Automatic annotation (TrEMBL), chains A, B:
Keywords: DNA-binding, Transcription, Transcription regulation
Top-level taxon of the source organism: Bacteria
PANTHER family in the record: HTH-TYPE TRANSCRIPTIONAL REGULATOR GALS (PTHR30146:SF109), LACI-RELATED TRANSCRIPTIONAL REPRESSOR (PTHR30146)
Segment forming the signal sequence: none
Annotated InterPro entries: Cro/C1-type_HTH, HTH_LacI, LacI/GalR-like_sensor, Lambda_DNA-bd_dom_sf, Peripla_BP_I
Coiled coil: none
Residues covered by the HTH cro/C1-type domain: 8-37
Name this polypeptide is given: LacI family DNA-binding transcriptional regulator
Keyword GTP-binding: no
Cross-referenced PROSITE patterns: HTH_CROC1, HTH_LACI_1, HTH_LACI_2
HTH lacI-type domain location: 7-61
GO molecular function, one term: DNA binding
DNA sequence: TTGTACGCGTTATCAA
DNA sequence: TTGATAACGCGTACAA
């Protein structure tokens, strides 16, 4: 890019009147350095405008100074409607924000990787094993995803955002989805609803199951042994039709917990179609606190998913494991909060 | 990661019975290599499982083998509702897909960078100048964004997805937004609408202006000298209120062109609120063909924005400029297509 | 066409 | 505590 040569350690050393080695030690914060030299060196760094050469450093440290953000789906990105849905949620952006918030201060690069096919997954694990990145923050979006196991087998420093669908000894950060379901139940009961129903997400998604379980247990604690359920697919449309089905079979419902905001938005549309007033006739609680919650009419009361914080924590887990590969597998669970708006 | 040392060029050379240099030449596809050796070397590469060391290569080639995907906004990510909107669109995911489709085959890494503050922008330009990445695909989301100019001044290989808001000698790829506006106009007129209106995006966004211009000119060609306009902010809510305003002031409208799908979705909601049938009483055409177009009821007839292709082309522009910095600034314009669904 | 040898900018080892 | 000096793995003039 620039015409003139970038300053190197040697240049700084000359400017400071010391040796390369000393400058290197100062910059890397190694102890055993004369405080006087310390200052002199930093001044020289400033004066020369020195910036460490990542490649040279990587070559000798055998670290890339990069962490990969891997989005793993069952099928290729382009063909899959769910993948479009995934990006359609603010989900991804929030995660990126959380990851960057811890990577940036450490000067670590974020390399984005999206793997849809089995071949791509295998290649990715190979690349990571070759040191393309020092570790990986992984979003595994499909229950049959083999990537967590592969990463584990390859001994790669990685952690998942969200509990792995299958039991794999890999670190992860998750939300107490069951607690979220309980929050929704308590809130609906608290506002006087007595005939509750739920629209769940896909049965094979762990988060979806947990939300159902939490909702069910909280209701059971209040004596509600049973409630009608309709299964959706986390999409707007599925929420709409699930709500229609629920209303057709159980006309007396006065409260519904929907496993994500997008479906809840669809459910609101269905209620509107049937001229049912929300929340007066039927109260609706969503999940995620995504932008869909604000777009909805009425605005959604929903369970907030602190994705940024969770992504940041996941990144810390990965970084810690890069520093010390002997660290044991760990999981961190976040607690959800209820955000009360208009729909319940 | 792995216990044993990774194979190096030296190992391959030994296995093939040639010198390091020859192996290097074969791998990098340099001419002047004996075809026989060529094959022998590749077999040795296979046998040893050799993979080039990026750091070592970078050190000598002075290339990072990385392209940055930069999202530049006027304010910090977390605070800005527009940023959430941005990620809320499938926009970002589609662009990532397009970029990766050309980077992956070339073995180039994608480094994600999100800069919200002026300080972050300056630091980014510095980092890129230091060779953190060889070039940048840039999404500039704010009219006052100084990043394009800064990149230009720093002589960094970069190209924008979307026309820069201010005239800057930098390569970009854009959509013929005006042609898209014209498509919408022709379609509405073609289906017999005679009293048209438009909901525009923010006046300072170039794409928004162009859509309006194209719509206007096409109508003018058919004798429609004037039509009512309401300005929105590319959000669902703004589309909803713009539509309400339009209906209040111009009750006779029978067709509306909305500058993006999200606003169009809001407009549909407004029409529904007023019990106006779509498309029978009022036809609606959106823009982008985002997932919002499919979520809408009725599903949106809209102008398709070939974002993946555009992002891929932008990436090619960046790559070409990395290879040959003397390449002149270039722009590539894509043509939109009309996707007919139910709303018009 | 192939091989030798040097340099890329760091970190790390070992004397001093 | 500091300073030479040896890797790190690769590309490439230059010589053969």
């Amino acid at each position: 890019m620039s015409e003139k040569r970038r300053p190197t350690l040697e240049d700084v050393a000359e400017a400071a009147g010391v040796s390369r080695a000393t400058v290197s030690r100062v910059i890397n914060g190694v102890r055993n350095v004369d405080p006087k030299l310390h200052e002199i060196v930093w001044q020289a760094v400033d004066a020369t405008g020195y910036v460490p050469n990542r490649a040279a450093r990587s070559l000798v440290t055998r670290r890339s100074g990069t962490v990969a953000l891997v989005v793993s789906d069952a099928v290729s990105h382009d063909d899959d409607p769910f993948m479009r849905r995934f990006f359609a949620d603010p989900f991804f952006g929030r995660i990126v924000g959380g990851v960057m918030s811890v990577l940036r201060p450490k000067g670590v690069q974020l390399a984005l990787q999206i793997v849809g096919t089995q071949e791509a997954r295998t290649r990715l694990v190979g690349d990571l094993g070759q040191g393309q990145a020092d570790g990986a923050v992984v979003l595994s979006l499909h229950p049959d995803d083999t990537l967590p196991q592969q990463l584990c087998d390859a001994g790669i420093a990685a952690a998942l955002v969200g509990r792995p669908a299958q039991p794999v000894p890999i670190s992860y950060v998750d939300l107490a989805n069951d607690a979220g379901g309980a929050l929704a139940a308590e809130h609906l009961l608290g506002r006087g609803c007595t005939r509750l129903g739920m629209i769940t997400g896909p049965a094979h998604v762990p988060a979806s199951q947990d939300r159902l379980t939490g909702f069910r247990q909280a209701l059971a604690r209040h004596g509600h042994a049973w409630f009608p359920i309709a299964e959706g697919g986390f999409t707007y449309e599925s929420g709409e039709s699930a709500m229609l089905a629920l209303m057709a079979e159980h006309p007396g419902l006065d409260g519904v917990f929907v496993a994500n905001d997008l479906m809840a938005q669809g459910a609101l549309m269905a209620l509107r179609t049937r001229n049912v007033r929300v929340p007066d006739e039927v109260a609706v609680v969503g999940f995620d606190d995504s932008s869909a919650a604000l777009d909805a009419r009425p605005q959604l009361t929903t369970v907030r998913h602190p994705l940024e914080d969770m992504a940041a924590e996941t990144t810390r887990l990965v970084l810690a494991r890069i520093d010390d590969p002997s660290l044991r597998v760990e999981s961190v669970i976040f607690d959800p909060k209820l955000v009360v708006r208009q729909s319940a």
